[in-house]
Amino acid sequence: MLEVVTCPINLLTLSAFKESLLKQLLFSSISILFLAGCASIQAPSSSDTQPVTTKPKYETYVQVGQLMPLKTVTTIDGKSIDLTNPEKRKLVILFATWCSDSQRAMKALHESDILNQEDLQIVAIARENTVEEIKKFRQERNITIDLVADVDRSIYKQFASAGIPRFILVDKNNRIVNEVLAEGENQIELIQW
Protein backbone atom coordinates (compact mmCIF):
# COMPACT_ATOMS: atom_id res chain seq x y z
CA MET A 1 0.00 0.00 0.00
CA LEU A 2 1.24 3.44 -0.93
CA GLU A 3 1.66 6.06 1.65
CA VAL A 4 1.18 9.66 0.66
CA VAL A 5 3.54 12.01 2.39
CA THR A 6 2.73 15.67 2.29
CA CYS A 7 5.20 18.43 2.90
CA PRO A 8 3.86 21.83 3.76
CA ILE A 9 5.47 24.50 1.51
CA ASN A 10 5.37 28.11 2.44
CA LEU A 11 4.26 30.03 -0.68
CA LEU A 12 6.40 33.01 0.29
CA THR A 13 9.52 30.80 0.41
CA LEU A 14 8.68 29.34 -3.02
CA SER A 15 8.28 32.81 -4.52
CA ALA A 16 11.66 33.94 -3.13
CA PHE A 17 13.25 30.76 -4.48
CA LYS A 18 11.85 31.43 -7.97
CA GLU A 19 13.10 35.03 -7.89
CA SER A 20 16.57 33.90 -6.80
CA LEU A 21 16.64 31.27 -9.54
CA LEU A 22 15.64 33.83 -12.19
CA LYS A 23 18.39 36.22 -11.06
CA GLN A 24 20.99 33.45 -11.23
CA LEU A 25 19.79 32.44 -14.69
CA LEU A 26 19.90 36.04 -15.95
CA PHE A 27 23.40 36.58 -14.52
CA SER A 28 24.63 33.32 -16.06
CA SER A 29 23.17 34.24 -19.46
CA ILE A 30 24.79 37.68 -19.44
CA SER A 31 28.12 36.18 -18.35
CA ILE A 32 28.03 33.62 -21.16
CA LEU A 33 27.24 36.30 -23.76
CA PHE A 34 30.03 38.53 -22.48
CA LEU A 35 32.60 35.75 -22.42
CA ALA A 36 31.53 34.50 -25.84
CA GLY A 37 31.96 37.99 -27.25
CA CYS A 38 35.48 38.28 -25.83
CA ALA A 39 36.41 34.82 -27.03
CA SER A 40 35.47 35.65 -30.61
CA ILE A 41 38.28 38.21 -30.90
CA GLN A 42 41.36 36.47 -32.22
CA ALA A 43 44.85 37.83 -32.09
CA PRO A 44 46.86 37.27 -35.25
CA SER A 45 49.16 34.30 -35.02
CA SER A 46 52.67 34.10 -36.40
CA SER A 47 51.45 31.67 -39.05
CA ASP A 48 49.12 34.27 -40.60
CA THR A 49 50.33 35.37 -44.02
CA GLN A 50 48.47 38.68 -44.04
CA PRO A 51 50.31 41.64 -42.47
CA VAL A 52 48.47 43.35 -39.65
CA THR A 53 47.71 46.99 -40.35
CA THR A 54 46.30 49.44 -37.88
CA LYS A 55 44.26 52.50 -38.62
CA PRO A 56 45.86 55.70 -37.35
CA LYS A 57 44.21 57.23 -34.29
CA TYR A 58 43.43 60.43 -36.19
CA GLU A 59 43.45 60.62 -39.95
CA THR A 60 44.64 63.87 -41.54
CA TYR A 61 43.30 64.75 -44.99
CA VAL A 62 45.61 67.64 -45.90
CA GLN A 63 49.32 67.49 -46.62
CA VAL A 64 52.19 69.95 -46.51
CA GLY A 65 52.50 71.64 -49.92
CA GLN A 66 48.83 71.18 -50.77
CA LEU A 67 46.65 74.21 -51.54
CA MET A 68 44.45 75.29 -48.68
CA PRO A 69 41.00 73.74 -49.32
CA LEU A 70 39.12 76.73 -47.86
CA LYS A 71 38.84 79.92 -49.89
CA THR A 72 36.44 81.99 -47.79
CA VAL A 73 34.74 81.66 -44.42
CA THR A 74 32.11 83.72 -42.64
CA THR A 75 32.68 84.73 -39.02
CA ILE A 76 30.11 84.54 -36.25
CA ASP A 77 29.67 88.29 -36.76
CA GLY A 78 28.77 87.86 -40.45
CA LYS A 79 32.10 89.11 -41.83
CA SER A 80 33.43 87.29 -44.92
CA ILE A 81 37.14 86.43 -44.78
CA ASP A 82 39.16 85.74 -47.93
CA LEU A 83 41.72 83.06 -47.08
CA THR A 84 43.47 83.45 -50.45
CA ASN A 85 44.88 86.90 -49.58
CA PRO A 86 48.45 86.87 -51.01
CA GLU A 87 49.63 89.58 -48.61
CA LYS A 88 49.32 87.48 -45.46
CA ARG A 89 50.23 84.10 -44.04
CA LYS A 90 47.32 82.34 -42.40
CA LEU A 91 46.96 80.45 -39.16
CA VAL A 92 43.74 78.43 -39.15
CA ILE A 93 42.86 76.90 -35.81
CA LEU A 94 40.33 74.07 -35.62
CA PHE A 95 38.95 73.79 -32.10
CA ALA A 96 35.87 73.26 -29.91
CA THR A 97 34.80 75.45 -27.01
CA TRP A 98 34.22 72.42 -24.75
CA CYS A 99 37.71 70.94 -25.31
CA SER A 100 40.25 71.63 -22.54
CA ASP A 101 43.20 71.44 -24.99
CA SER A 102 41.42 73.95 -27.24
CA GLN A 103 40.78 76.26 -24.30
CA ARG A 104 44.44 76.04 -23.29
CA ALA A 105 45.59 76.74 -26.87
CA MET A 106 43.36 79.79 -27.22
CA LYS A 107 44.59 81.18 -23.90
CA ALA A 108 48.24 80.60 -24.86
CA LEU A 109 47.66 82.19 -28.26
CA HIS A 110 46.26 85.34 -26.66
CA GLU A 111 49.18 85.52 -24.25
CA SER A 112 51.73 85.19 -27.08
CA ASP A 113 53.15 87.74 -29.49
CA ILE A 114 51.72 85.83 -32.48
CA LEU A 115 48.71 88.15 -32.49
CA ASN A 116 51.03 91.10 -33.17
CA GLN A 117 52.46 89.75 -36.42
CA GLU A 118 51.30 92.16 -39.14
CA ASP A 119 51.62 89.67 -42.00
CA LEU A 120 49.54 86.98 -40.26
CA GLN A 121 45.79 86.41 -40.52
CA ILE A 122 44.34 84.19 -37.78
CA VAL A 123 40.98 82.45 -38.01
CA ALA A 124 39.66 79.95 -35.45
CA ILE A 125 36.95 77.54 -36.57
CA ALA A 126 34.83 75.97 -33.81
CA ARG A 127 33.43 72.59 -34.72
CA GLU A 128 30.10 71.40 -33.33
CA ASN A 129 29.41 74.72 -31.60
CA THR A 130 26.56 77.12 -32.25
CA VAL A 131 27.13 80.81 -32.89
CA GLU A 132 25.70 81.58 -29.43
CA GLU A 133 28.12 79.15 -27.73
CA ILE A 134 31.08 80.65 -29.59
CA LYS A 135 30.05 84.21 -28.74
CA LYS A 136 29.79 83.25 -25.07
CA PHE A 137 33.24 81.59 -25.27
CA ARG A 138 34.69 84.71 -26.91
CA GLN A 139 33.22 87.01 -24.27
CA GLU A 140 34.29 84.86 -21.29
CA ARG A 141 37.89 84.59 -22.55
CA ASN A 142 38.30 88.00 -24.22
CA ILE A 143 39.09 86.40 -27.58
CA THR A 144 40.05 88.97 -30.22
CA ILE A 145 40.63 86.82 -33.32
CA ASP A 146 38.02 86.00 -35.95
CA LEU A 147 35.82 83.04 -35.01
CA VAL A 148 33.82 80.83 -37.36
CA ALA A 149 31.05 78.34 -36.51
CA ASP A 150 31.26 74.85 -38.02
CA VAL A 151 28.12 73.38 -36.50
CA ASP A 152 27.97 70.29 -38.73
CA ARG A 153 31.77 69.71 -39.09
CA SER A 154 31.57 70.39 -42.83
CA ILE A 155 34.72 72.53 -42.63
CA TYR A 156 36.55 70.32 -40.14
CA LYS A 157 36.08 67.10 -42.12
CA GLN A 158 38.05 68.63 -45.01
CA PHE A 159 41.11 68.51 -42.73
CA ALA A 160 40.87 65.48 -40.43
CA SER A 161 38.73 62.68 -39.02
CA ALA A 162 39.23 63.61 -35.36
CA GLY A 163 41.49 65.42 -32.93
CA ILE A 164 41.51 69.03 -31.75
CA PRO A 165 42.91 71.58 -31.53
CA ARG A 166 44.65 71.63 -34.89
CA PHE A 167 46.87 74.37 -36.27
CA ILE A 168 46.99 74.72 -40.06
CA LEU A 169 49.81 77.04 -41.15
CA VAL A 170 49.38 78.46 -44.65
CA ASP A 171 51.87 80.59 -46.60
CA LYS A 172 51.14 83.67 -48.72
CA ASN A 173 50.74 81.44 -51.79
CA ASN A 174 47.89 79.61 -50.04
CA ARG A 175 49.91 76.41 -49.60
CA ILE A 176 49.88 74.43 -46.36
CA VAL A 177 53.25 74.76 -44.63
CA ASN A 178 52.43 72.67 -41.57
CA GLU A 179 49.47 70.92 -39.97
CA VAL A 180 49.76 70.13 -36.27
CA LEU A 181 47.54 68.31 -33.78
CA ALA A 182 48.13 70.54 -30.77
CA GLU A 183 47.02 68.45 -27.82
CA GLY A 184 48.75 68.83 -24.47
CA GLU A 185 51.09 71.52 -23.19
CA ASN A 186 53.26 74.13 -24.94
CA GLN A 187 51.00 74.22 -27.98
CA ILE A 188 52.12 77.63 -29.23
CA GLU A 189 55.66 76.28 -29.67
CA LEU A 190 54.23 74.04 -32.42
CA ILE A 191 53.49 77.07 -34.60
CA GLN A 192 56.63 77.15 -36.70
CA TRP A 193 56.82 78.44 -40.24
Can you put this structure into words, describing what you see?
Helix content is 27%, strand content 19%. The protein has 193 residues and is an alpha/beta fold. It folds into two domains: 11-39; 72-190, 3-Layer(aba) Sandwich (Glutaredoxin), CATH 3.40.30. The strands form two sheets. Strands 5-4-3-6-7 form a five-stranded mixed sheet. A two-stranded antiparallel sheet has the order 1-2. The termini are far apart.
List the keywords.
193 residues, alpha/beta, Glutaredoxin, elongated
What is CATH's topology name of the largest domain? Glutaredoxin
**Share of helix among residues?**
25-40%
What's the CATH first level of the largest domain? Answer: Alpha Beta
| Count of individual beta strands | 7
Question: What's the average pLDDT?
Answer: 81
- Total domain modules: 2
Shape: elongated
Class per helix and strand makeup: alpha/beta
**Cα distance, first to last residue?**
105 Å
CATH architecture of the largest domain: 3-Layer(aba) Sandwich
Report the major sheet.
5 strands, mixed
Give the strand content: 15-25%
Topology pattern, helix = H, strand = E:
HEEEHEHEEE
Poorly predicted spans: 31-50
- Classified in CATH, the superfamily of the largest domain is Glutaredoxin
The total of helices stands at 3
Radius of gyration: 29 Å
- For the largest sheet, list the strands in their spatial order: 5-4-3-6-7
